[in-house]
Amino acid sequence: MKLLCKGFALLMLLGGASVVFAQGKLTLRVSDQFPPAHFVYDSIKFWMAEVEKAAGGAVKFDYFPGEQLGKAKDQLALIQSGVVDVSLVVPSYTSDKMPLSAVAELPGMVDPKTSCAGSVAYTQLAQTGIFAKQEYDPAGVRMIWGFAYPPYQLMMAQRLLTSLKDVEGAKIRTLGNSMDILVRHLKGVPVRIPLPDVYEALSRGTIDGLMYTHAGMYAYKMEGLIKSATTSGSFGSAVGGYSISEKRWKELPAPIQKAMMDAGERATRHLCARMDKDAQEALEKLKQRGVTMASFSPADQKELEKIYAMTANEWVAGMDKRGKPGGEALKAFREAVAQAR
């Protein structure tokens, strides 16, 4: 309630209704949690510029990054309440409403060579597939464009990773339920913390490590805290998408809708290409900083594959108990990724 009151107060200060016409232009408010150094920040700026260009000056955006209007977990509520028009919805931050999308977080699901296949697959399923029907539509929102991160790696602040035994007992930051399952199978302790709060948690020893991308470490200035990291793991991923409420969408002129969706398709490709490039560059930077790159034995790699499979099976069983089509979501995402390669 405090968040919504704060948001509505700011909304009134900014000029009343969420969509306003000023000097003949349609002004839309965009919100997310990313700092300017984050690679997604660059792509949302790209998307807005593309829409403005395609609309011939008929639309412009007021952009509020870095959790200015609300925490990462509250972005969906900001859209639904009308505080903003477009915001980044990360299903894992609203797992009670969007549990099936967490299938993309399962280990081994995203192509280790490129994030583009996962990004295209997730966007497709969230716009017209199972995620749209089961989660986005019931929430009253429509995804405009989405993405999937490259496979997450395991990074530790103090422990040196030499084998899977080094993970035992470690407090590992996770994103959602599927990563919680994975960490428990690795005999670690899963701890859910939003990314903007991870630096402090690592610094204080609240957590021992995290599963995230190498490039993402630099966006949140965590690279100096990391002692050891994996390079060949596939410890899950994260998905998200810039979305708009269905109510607001229907109020937009058709040419603006088309411009937003067309630019969204380009933004998805723009971001995945950027992520792939940044991933390689970040890996080299970490090596130069003296971060030890973990290389597990063939026996450990074989054990990891077993753990990946057990994690997926346990996740599906958990969804089934909740009356959610977990098996169908797993099958749909795997097929969509294969088709997108």
Describe the biggest sheet?
6 strands, mixed
**E-strand count:** 12
Helical content class: 40-55%
Shape category = globular
Overall tally of structural domains: 2
How many DSSP H or I helices?
Answer: 12
Please state the oligomeric state of the protein chains shown: single chain
Q: What is the CA-atom radius of gyration, in angstroms?
A: 20 Å
Q: Looking at this structure, what is the CATH superfamily of the largest domain?
A: Bacterial extracellular solute-binding protein, family 7
CATH architecture group name of the largest domain: 3-Layer(aba) Sandwich
CATH fold category name of the largest domain: D-Maltodextrin-Binding Protein, domain 2
Overall average pLDDT = 89
SS content category: alpha/beta
Regarding CATH, which class of the largest domain?
A: Alpha Beta
What is the strand content?
Answer: 15-25%
Series of secondary-structure elements, N-terminal to C-terminal: HEEHEHEHHEEEHEHEHEEHHEHH
Distance, first to last CA: 43 Å
Which regions contain 5 or more consecutive residues with pLDDT less than 50? 1-23
